[in-house]
Amino acid sequence: MTEQPKTKEDVLRIVKDRGIEFVYFQYVEMYGKPCAKLVPALALAELWDEGAGAAGFAAGEIGQGPHDPDLVAYPDPQTFIQLPWQPEVGLITCDVYVEDEPWPYDPRLILRNVLEQARQRGYIFNIGFEPEFQLLEADPENIARPRRADPYDVLQRPCYDVKGLTRQYNYIRDLSRALNELGWSNYALDHEDANGQFEGNVKFSDALTTADRCVVYKYMADTIARQHGMTATFMPKPFVDQTGNGLHLTFSLWDENNQTNLFESSDDARGLGLSKLAYQFIGGLIDHAQAYIGLTAPTVNSYKRLRRGTHDVRTWVPVNVTYGGNNRTQMLRVGGPGRVEDRTPDGSCNPYLAMAAILASGLDGIERDLDPGDPNHDNLYEVPEAELKERGIGFLPGNLFEAINNLEQDSVLRAALGRARGEDYLDYYCRVKRAEWDSYHRQVSEWELQHQLHFP
């Protein structure tokens, strides 16, 4: 199953040889929702050249209105996979066109464009992802509020709990088998810090491949969970009393042949095993953090995970714009030589847009020769806020509205996301996100009714 096709002919041969009956032509819209048409194998050769047409406005936020011509999804043969849990079905990731032109609202195209800018400078952007998710089941007494699938998963500190892992062994086993059948090199699975929370890690790859895999991973984790009578959620903060679901991204720049890690150095006076290039990249991330977080933590719920003003170590999330060594209270963690982990992203992000934003910010740091200063070694959960301000340590935005305002003003990210149809993609993105914020802000919550209905 791990054969890597290169051409249309490779895919057609694999489909025939393995008796695959259907192939999903898949793409994503702004929110990262996977959209697809199911193509019978008998029609695959014909539709490959024609593309799979769709009404873009119906698909989601992809820059179209009901009056626009169809978007057309053209398959990228190198992304073809056979679904391990449903082997008669294949899936291929597509690029979106409209009227024979690449569609500028396609998130995959946006990442491609930023990666090409890096390639022209001699860099390949490699990245790995850590997908945290929680397993849920329906509560028959409250269908609108699912509950944890394992009623025995109640430890106050359940992280790495072997019993919790064992109780979900059948699901974890099937997920691991699927990851390895895809050739993604699953190297670890564990119970994470929240009750009912798990993570399965795969080997890093180039950013476009990793973003494609991230979309499939989320679809796969939930699909296999449903086969076991559960669902999998990547929502950043589904339970107020539990650790949220992050999507930590660990990355480095490599040479144009993808043979040498340009972030790694054995001669680092700061002791982290990083090169000057890596520090410049970090400088760019710190400079743009308060803006690009609008793409890496892009929902209202994201900021209930990134809670400023809490020192609860079980949040495991950053609220300050800092970098440090193997220190999980920092926004940017250097867990080992030659790599940097960004702890701001969560499972609600569109991986194409998030990776494009991180890369563009880092490249700007290189271009401007930014120095992030010395690493921070503090436990930032214990440093008083007043002291942080005195030391000039910035804070991440406290809500989506603030993040989007910052993002809108960032000229580097504006240029990186590109020009769309009569507008910058950034303006489109911010407009959609402001509407999301407004929709949320119009709601009256249960908390408000409990605390303010009869007060004062």
Give me the number of helical elements.
15
Name of the CATH homologous superfamily of the largest domain: Glutamine synthetase/guanido kinase, catalytic domain
CATH topology (level 3) name of the largest domain: Creatine Kinase, Chain A, domain 2
Number of domains: 2
Q: pLDDT under 50 segments (min length 5)?
A: none
The CATH architecture of the largest domain comes to 2-Layer Sandwich
Beta-strand portion reads: 15-25%
Beta-strand segment tally:
17
SSE class: alpha+beta
State the distance separating the first and last CA atoms: 65 Å
Q: What average pLDDT do the residues reach?
A: 95
- Tell me the radius of gyration: 22 Å
The shape is globular
TL;DR?
Strand 5 (81-82) and strand 6 form a beta hairpin.
Description:
By secondary structure, the protein is of the alpha+beta class. It has two domains: 8-101, Glutamine synthetase, N-terminal domain (Ubiquitin-like (UB roll), Roll); 114-448, Glutamine synthetase/guanido kinase, catalytic domain (Creatine Kinase, Chain A, domain 2, 2-Layer Sandwich). Helices cover 36% and strands 18% of the residues. Strands 8, 9, 10, 11, 12, 13, 14, 15, 16 and 17 form a ten-stranded mixed sheet that branches. Strands 1, 2, 3, 4, 5, 6 and 7 form a seven-stranded mixed sheet that branches. Helix 6 (169-181) packs antiparallel against helix 7 (207-227), helix 8 crosses helix 12 and helix 12 (400-408) packs antiparallel against helix 14.
